[in-house]
Amino acid sequence: MGDIEARFHLALGGFTLDLDLRVPGQGVTALFGQSGSGKTTALRCIAGLERAEGRLRVNGEVWQDAERFEPVHQRPIGYVFQEASLFPHLSVRRNLEYGFKRLAPGERRVGLDDAVAWLGLGPLLGRAPARLSGGERQRVAIARALLTSPRLLLMDEPLSALDHRSKGEILPYLERLHGTLAIPVIYVTHSPDEVAHLADHLVVMAGGRAVAGGPLTETLARLDLPIRMGEEAGVVLDARVVERDLVWHLARAAFSGGSLWVRDAGVPVGDPVRLRVLARDLSLALERHEGTSILNLLPARVEDMAEEGHPAVRLVRVRVGDTPLVARVTARSAQTLGLESGKEIWVQIKSVAVLE
After folding, report:
1. Contact (Cβ atoms closer than 8 angstroms) between residue 347 and residue 258
2. What is the pLDDT of residue 228?
3. CA 274 – CA 225 distance, rounded (Å)
4. Mean pLDDT in order along the chain per 10 residues (356 residues)
5. What pLDDT score does 313 carry?
6. Which CATH architecture fits 3-220?
7. Phi and psi at residue 171, in whole multiples of 5°?
8. Residue 299: what pLDDT?
């Protein structure tokens, strides 16, 4: 597996991007941060839309360094903006064919029928963009970008212009792409929910710099990030369904170090599933408690603890086998339980609280 190395320095008015980034050359990397942190500027530098000083290497190919600068039209990228920007005078089909037909047949790595199927565009092919919903337009824009057969797909907050309902409609398509695409994706967002659904690798941006980065679960479990997630604090687990309880409509999903009973979403036994476990939904105990409504009781070890925005609140990182989890407790509870690094405890998680 290759990687993507991006080192840029760019001064824009009162803002300076000073980026030193190395991420996997496959899967989805999320650039996450607050507005003004430099996420979109970093993406524009990778695309060649901003001419920054520095170096860019994508899976062994140098696109920019001190001697060369590949212009944007020569970089094999697909770019999906916040607004779909479809050609209003062309049908959906002709929008999709616009870039596809400009590639020589031997250069086409994504077929038109595949892109249409992946993004559910079959019923829309004859429509004009004006007759599409916001979510439908963005699905067409994503398919159009894929049909240029890019070696890197850049997505700049593609859901930010959509209402809550449209976001809910398009996320399943993006999740399907996540499991289908062989090309790397760099996905800019300020939404923890989008990170949880789509990312494999997370880079946290602040003040024009990449201040943290790594595999999704481990990075989300860090307690020293400059960006506090608030009610969204927690981790994402890649798990696999190993049992289904058809009587009680539950499924047991195993991850490295344990398993969780969750609501049955119909995923077949043996298939992967992604679980989101929020810090607010974990409680800690010194002993295993039976006779409660909580189905998930897991032995764990305390690794770290930090204050979270208020002197009454603590975030506690624990490890269940090889997997980190984060719990939110009061400082009083932390003292009562004697929480400290290395302490053996039990984690309690309500099945109905785990998100998919």
Report:
1. no
2. 66
3. 23
4. 91 92 93 92 95 94 93 92 88 90 80 89 93 91 90 92 85 83 91 90 94 93 78 90 96 95 94 93 93 93 91 95 95 96 96 78
5. 93
6. 3-Layer(aba) Sandwich (3.40)
7. -55, -40
8. 97
Class of domain 234-353: mainly beta
Own/partner pairs for 120-129, CB < 8 Å, 24+ apart?
A: 120/173, 121/92, 121/96, 124/92, 125/91, 125/92, 125/93, 125/96, 126/91, 126/92, 126/93, 127/91, 127/92, 128/88, 128/90, 128/91, 128/92, 129/84, 129/86, 129/87, 129/88, 129/90, 129/92, 129/95
Buried b vs exposed e over 335-344: b needs ≥16 C-beta within 10 Å?
eebebeeebe
pLDDT of residue 175: 85
Q: What are the structure tokens assigned to 326, written together?
A: 């984060």
Domain boundaries along the sequence of the chain: 3-220, 234-353
Residue (of 160, 156, 148, 204) closest to 23 by Cα position: 204
Return the structure tokens found at 19. 């980026």
Domain 3-220 matches domain 234-353 at the CATH topology level: no
Closest by CA position to 145, among listed 186, 203, 106: 186
- DSSP at 26: S
Between the CA atoms of 39, 40, 44 and 49, what dihedral angle is there, to the nearest 10 degrees?
Answer: -150
How many whole angstroms separate alpha carbon 286 and alpha carbon 284? 7
Instruction: Name the H helices within the chain.
Output: 39-47, 92-100, 112-118, 134-146, 164-178, 192-198, 216-220, 331-337
Q: Are strands 209-215 and 258-263 parallel, antiparallel or unpaired?
A: unpaired
Residue type, 232: E
Beta strands in the chain (DSSP E): 3-12, 15-24, 28-32, 53-58, 61-64, 77-80, 152-156, 185-189, 201-206, 209-215, 234-245, 250-255, 258-263, 272-278, 282-285, 296-307, 313-320, 323-330, 344-349
* CA distances (Å), origin 317, targets 266, 288, 336: 31, 19, 17
